[in-house]
Structures are given as structure tokens and as C-alpha cells.
Amino acid sequence: MRLLILDEPTASLTETETAILLNLIKDLQAHNIACVYISHKLNEVKAISDNFCVIRDGEYIGTRPAKGMSEDDIITMMVSREITSLYPHEPHDIGEEILRVENITAWHPTNTHIKRVDNASFSLKRGEILGVAGLVGSGRTEMAQCIFGSYLGKYQGDIYVEGQKGQIKNCAQAIEKNIVMVPEDRKKHGIVPIMGVGKNITLAALLFR
């Protein structure tokens, strides 16, 4: 017998890398290697599984053939009730404008002939969620870094916080204005690796000491 157990193998993979891995697993199946694939990503489970089993709060709920089962059916087994809306709209009040970004332009850190962000503008109101979409390399991350003051290259533009034009030249100034950022690559940009865990946890608080 040959058995491979994979526990959340795509947690840190991109969509392209995930597709490659799923194809490799199918190849293993074709060579009579059995696989146990543990995941909360139901589309992956359905894509490669012959059968699936559901465990809830440590209790075995049941096993079903993957063919003919929808994601809604699997979710119902997982939560023991029918889910009519995964993302229900909760009405809430939208307040006044708290952030306005005007004409943000950022140049490549080592090649100033290349613009990473070109004349971007938007506004954000209190209680509002603004989604920023773009492919890798489109400038979405660089724009966020400009707002947070962490972009390493040259950039220009105006940022207004609660109606007041702000001078955000570094992360400390952004945090003083209650602007924080969770970076895309947390291992690279979210910690200071030469510092211990304790100092990393309290790093933001140290700015005000």
C-alpha cells in the first residue's frame, strides 16, 4: 500500500501553483497511490476527490461520493444546517469621508522611467469597504504602500485624512493617523526578522514611547 496524506497543502500557494499540485495528485492517483486530502477549500475537494468525509467538532459526520454533491450540500453537512447565503448583506450606515487619495504616482525604486502607479485617486467613507483589484504587478500593493508610507521608491500625490491634508512619509506617521496595514507578504514585510517575537508584537506601540 502507498498512501499520501496532504494537510492543507495549498494554504500558501497561488492559484497557478494550486492547479499544478492538483494535477500532480491526479497523476499519483493514476499510479495507484491513495491520497487523503485535507482542506477547507471545497472547490479543490470536489476537483480531485472520489469521496469525501466531513468532521465537525471532532465528530465524524459521514462520507459521501463527491460526484453529484454540490458545495452547498457539503457546507450543510459541515455546519449541520442549510446556508442560504454565504455572504449576507448586513445593512449599515455609511458615514462621512475619512480618506481621500489624489493623483498618487509611484516610480520603480531602481528605474525611475517605470511607473508602478500612475495617477491613482479614490475616496473612502466611514464604515465603507473599498476593494482594490488588479493582477500581480498592476501596482495595487505599491499604492497601498504609498498610503502607509512604506514604499521604497519615489512617489507623489496628496492624501487627506478626515479632511486634513496629511504628511505621511513613513509608517510611524501613518500609525499616528490610525492607518495600519497588513502586508501581502507578511513574512517579508510584516515583521523585523532580526528582532524577537515579543518586540515584533509590540513594535507599533514602541513608536509612541
From TrEMBL:
InterPro entries named among the record's database cross-references: ABC_carbohydrate_import_ATPase, ABC_transporter-like_ATP-bd, P-loop_NTPase
Domain ABC transporter: 118-186
One GO MF term: ATP binding
SUPFAM superfamilies hit by this protein: P-loop containing nucleoside triphosphate hydrolases (SSF52540)
Keywords: ATP-binding, Cell membrane, Membrane, Nucleotide-binding, Repeat, Sugar transport, Translocase, Transport
Identification of the protein by name: D-xylose ABC transporter, ATP-binding family protein
Species for this entry: Actinobacillus ureae ATCC 25976
